[in-house]
Amino acid sequence: MKATYAKKRSESDTATKCDEIALLWRQKGNDKFRSNNIEASYSYYSKSVTYANQTGPMYPLALANRSAALLRLKRNEDCLSDIKLAISNGYPSELRHKLLLRRADCLIELCRTVAAREALIEAKQHAATLKLSMSHKGEFDRHLCDLEKKLEVVKDVDRSEEDEIPDFYMGENEEFVSASNALQLKRSKAAGRHVVTKKATKRGDVIFSEEPYACVTLPNEGGRLVCETCCRTDINTVPCSVCSRSCYCSETCREHGLHTFHRWECPGAQFDLFPTIGIAHLALRVLLVSVSAGFPQLPLGARTPTSASDLFNGYANVDNVQIYTRDTPPFYRMFNLVTNFDKMNSTDYIQYALTATMLTLYLENFTTFFDDLPDKIPYTLNKSQLRLFSASLLLRSLGQLVCNGHAALSLATIEEDDAKAGRTISEREVRRATAIYPSAAMMNHSCDPNIVNTFYNSRLIVRCSREMPVATEVFNCYGPHRSRETTAQRRAQLRAQYMFNCMCTACLDTDRKDFVSLFTAYACQTCKGPVLWCGKRALCQQCHAELQIDRALSAIEKAEDLMDQAERAATVEERFEKAHAAYKMKQQVWHRHHTSLRAAADRLARIYADSGEFSRSVELIKQNIQSLEYQFGSFSVEVAHELRKLSDVMLERLINLPQSPEYREWCLEAHKIIKKSIQLMDLNYGSWEPLVKRLKEQESIVASLLAHSRTPEHSDTIHNNLHYNLKI
To answer: Which residues form the MYND-type domain (predicted)?
Structure first.
């Protein structure tokens, strides 16, 4: 792999640094910038920054070019960071006056007037030390004059925004680190270690807030970059100084990542090792993080270890509940997570052992890991035992992560071009990292969980999804959920990965064991009840009539053909007529909660909204919300997204039909829906998500529309603001 990947792979890509490639991307960026394609120029300049040798002249030039694109994109804080980096990395003195003016421009945009004046003075003083030509001096003076005029009309305002991280409900628990004082960690023979409430909680209460012991970032949909250290998304990249495969959100995160793990991972990143080993990358990261922090002493009274086995047994010989107190080193909590090795088949176990061995050989042959390790263990072990200890810890971590690992999720803005639906911009959940949270891992599984997981960068914040009385067990969902799979499917998945037979309340509820079958059921032609397969026959669950499945499939085929005709219709009227007829035909065939019927309603709602029939669109989306509430619950993430969609259409209606006699009622309804959408999005994702912030801006604007709905003289300004803020 090293021979194949750790070299220049093409004229535009290399695993290390190459100023030729950096120049290529910078020139591409210049072309896009000149043609006013700023987004593309930013992307190309970022590639130039990534590939440039950081001790050479190309790196500061690439940073300066990227700062110009960032200024145009109104990403002023990132622009300031790039300017600072460019100057500190030797940006040419004869060009620096332009960069200093750009910094002043950023500061003016941020309304930091004092700092902006200082930046203008510095730019003027630096320009005075240069022998500028008459044309260059004239250009500089004009730009300086423009900025001084711009500064005169700006008031000093602090526009920096700090995300507010919610506090623990009832404060942090000293006996259960990273957990709320409302919780207690208990142990029993039947449930093992588990979490219960010792105080009553309500929906939205924060009961865990935990940074991961270790995490690794994942390739993101749409090429969104994630900081290797803190998992922040959509970053302005600061690359590793050696390889071109690792990126960070700041120099601070880069230095922390280098010290904690990347000094030993950089060679593997260069020859593309980590994408091939899956969860084993996180197991390696656990080992590296542990070594970086240093292994703790064994508990008092333990005998001094002379072998890897002695040290392993010493770390395991603890009270696995008491190790969750605040004064216990974090390594003990990580080391004592369960592995399920005793239930694993030998083939998987051998595969994990071989992977651990291979990674140990990687550390030995390609890094300084084993030179650094002896100083990080508080006991003397020979070289052979150090290798054995490292390989054993890798193997143990692999077993732990398979049943304790956690995907870190976030909302991403995805642009799609669909032949039928057109260009769509939507928010979607994406996995940005895999991580291990030892405290949150103490929650047992239920297919009907009572918590919601949210993520702020790498931090896991767990909230209650419903009220919980005292002595209620707190349940997470390990994946299979009662709203998405049947009992048999859920149990099979849990046995395959977690090796237990689920006995949660949802799995024991025989009345609802086929609940999810409703969402793929046909409609009975006699009573409209759900029709499910019973052996080889499709029977109504209410009147037991048999469905003629061939007729149903034929009707769906005709409906799809009608919808295709609607998409190609020459007039709006014909499009409405055929799309509506297709939907009505599907209503006759599918049960009212069928997921495909919801998709058909959504498609028709889109056609109505695109054509200005907003009220019709609103009614269809409301219908879908009722169905989603039935399947997932009123506070689910699925309902949150549908409410968000409903609020968008309602806002469009307000913008396009301001003279309607129903305008005030529409304002009232839109305001109510947006507030509900904010509540659910905050619960499921957190107030720090950009989408939640945009919804709050829209709520404020609709509140203004509502307040001024009887004073038309203010309406134009408010409508302009609404157009500016609306993302649909």
So the answer is: 227-266
